Amino acid sequence: MALPSSVARRVARIEPAHLTNGRLWTVVFGPAHGEAVMVRLPDGRVGIVDGCREPARDCPVTRLLAGLKATRLLFACLTHPHEDHYKGLGRLLELYRGRVDHMWHVLALTSRERAGVVAYAKRHHARPKRAKLPDTGDAQGVERVFREIMAAETVGADRRQLVTDRGLLREQVAGAEFAVDSWGPTDADTSDAVMEFLATPRKDWNVKDDLPNQVSGALLVRWGESRVLLAGDLYAHTNDR
Fold it and tell me: What global pTM score does this model have?
């Protein structure tokens, strides 16, 4: 079967009509800092990587999902717990609770790890005084994401941690193999970051710290001969693969 060649387009506003069947589509949203990514399979199913804006603030991801009439998510992924990647994702996962087939995340998300990340977020993302939404700029956004990730397994999702070289999904789609593999983070980077998250906050912690980036995961998406690397904020630390 001859598969379509890759094309790239930049549009001011993505519409459902742009995403024709029979192709693998990756749509990158970046309304401010950070980004969210939608992957649309050739058979019309969709997956979401990260979040970028609260739904009440005209989130382009939520809008496009509604336009596509997507009733389920094949997968949802949080590449790392940084505000510009978890913003709005928790509310989206609430919307699709019980309708996500695969849920992926970094860190083991033990209760101690979750508490450490939330403490970090509270220190680094204080809520603006006049914020209209409770998740704007503070730790409630990541708490909401963690709650939905942990609950996903109880309502039927296959939940897995992102680690280097882990196969996450593999099946035949429209005449070719579709697969998603995890490319990071490394065990060493994760261990070092967990120790920092669980440590007593240091006086030299400041908003320029990028500890969540150290545990960023990445996804390699494949369909036939097509390859797309969704890199999050992945670093080359102890393992430059």
Answer: 0.88
Cis peptide before 185 (omega within 30 of 0): yes
DSSP result, 80-141: ---HHHHTTHHHHHHHTTT-EEEEEESS---HHHHHHHHHHHHHH-PPPTT-SSTTTTSTHH
Q: What is the C-alpha separation between 207 and 31, in angstroms, rounded? A: 21
Cβ pair 188, 239 in contact under 8 A: yes
Q: How many CA atoms lie within 13 A of 101 on its CB side?
A: 12
Q: Are strands 25-29 and 36-40 parallel, antiparallel or unpaired?
A: antiparallel
32, 84 contact by CB (below 8 A): yes
Structure tokens at 102: 């695969």
* Torsion, Cα of 20, 23, 182, 232 (10° steps): -50
Q: Beta strand 46-49 with 226-230: parallel, antiparallel or unpaired?
A: unpaired
Tokens of 143: 């708490």
Residue entry with tokens 């999902």: 65
Best CA proximity match to 95, nearest among 152, 43, 13: 152
Cα(229)–Cα(5) distance, integer angstroms: 17
Mean pLDDT, contiguous 10-residue spans, the chain (241 residues): 58 86 90 80 96 78 93 97 90 95 97 92 66 55 94 94 95 96 90 87 60 92 94 71 45
